[in-house]
Write a structure and sequence with these properties.
Blueprint (H helix, E strand, L loop, with lengths): L22 E5 L3 H7 L4 H22 L3 E8 L7 H25 L1 E6 L7 H13 L6 E9 L1 H17 L10 H5 L12 E4 L18 E4 L9 H13 L8
Parallel strand pairs: 1-2, 1-5, 2-4, 3-4, 5-6
The site of one 3-methylbut-3-enyl trihydrogen diphosphate has 11 residues, from strand 2.
Length: 249
């Protein structure tokens, strides 16, 4: 089966299974260009992209990745034509209905980062349900970034923090980076080790601004719907060659 496959050799190099990144962020980009190159509507690219994240989640679980945070809809993506936004919302709903049972059975934990309050009540309900029924999953966490923007996340965190200060749950003098990070959507998850962006773009597009502080980056020209386990291997092998100094020598 796809996800049971042993990590395959890339350029005669193998992954060090003892140093697999714990938390990988993925900017799932290039769905539209993938569809265009095949003469298909953009929605077909998004549908294929949803299948790819399902496969990649399974593959990452099989090699010991603990968390994937996958950028599925940004705070800026509302600026797309209504028809595309609607298509993305429909696909998200379909995805949730489809994966919920599977995630429950294979112990995948579903989480969300982002402000889902702007979504329809039906979608919000499906998200809450998927989170609830998979909450005990211990195989891998798939954290979907939905209506997510790094700046928005920091603003929302600041407001929550301010609220706690006003209610005397916290004093300003106690605020430090560790305390602040508890107010972010990613609270409780391990540090992001590696951020992957396919499709040839080399920017963050408002993804995980705080969390990316010491993440390694890996880019590829491949469009997200074509991203395979071999591409994931290549990203991890490249990551394992980096020297993460964290400001030291
Ligand atoms: C990423 O693919 C998916 C979302 C942003 C929702 P795009 O739709 O951005 O695809 P391109 O970049 O136009 O090819
Ligand atoms: C980033 O891709 C957002 C997601 C993948 C969900 P975009 O396609 O929206 O980013 P830009 O516009 O190229 O920066
Ligand atoms: Mg794009």
């Amino acid at each position: 089966m796809f996800f049971k496959r042993k990590p395959k050799q890339q350029n005669n190099e193998t992954m060090d299974m003892a140093r697999i990144p714990k938390h990988i962020g993925i900017i799932m980009d290039g769905n539209g260009r993938w569809a265009k190159s095949k003469g298909l509507p953009r929605k077909a690219g998004h549908r294929q992209g949803a299948k790819t994240i399902e496969n990649i989640t399974d593959y990452c679980a099989s090699i010991g990745v603990e968390v994937i945070t996958a950028y599925a809809f940004s705070t800026e993506n509302w600026n797309r034509p209504k028809e595309e936004v609607d298509a993305l919302m429909d696909l998200l709903y379909e995805y949730l209905i489809q994966v919920e049972e599977k995630f429950k059975n294979d112990r995948t934990k579903f989480m969300v980062s982002g402000d889902v309050s702007r979504f329809s009540p039906k979608l919000q309900e499906a998200i809450a349900h998927a989170i609830d029924v998979t909450k005990d999953g211990d195989r891998i966490i798939i954290n979907l970034a939905l209506n997510y923007g790094g700046r928005d996340e920091i603003v929302r965190a600041s407001k929550k923090l301010y609220g706690d200060i006003c209610e005397n749950k916290l004093s300003v003098d106690d605020v430090n980076e560790e305390v602040f990070s508890r107010y972010l959507d990613t609270y409780g998850l391990p540090e992001v080790d590696l951020i992957i962006r396919p499709s040839g773009e080399q920017r963050l597009s408002n993804f995980l601004l705080w969390q990316a502080a010491y993440a390694e980056f890996w880019y590829s020209d491949i469009c997200w719907p074509d991203f395979s386990s071999a591409d994931m291997d290549a990203a991890i092998i490249a990551y394992q060659k980096r020297d993460r100094r964290y400001g030291g020598v």
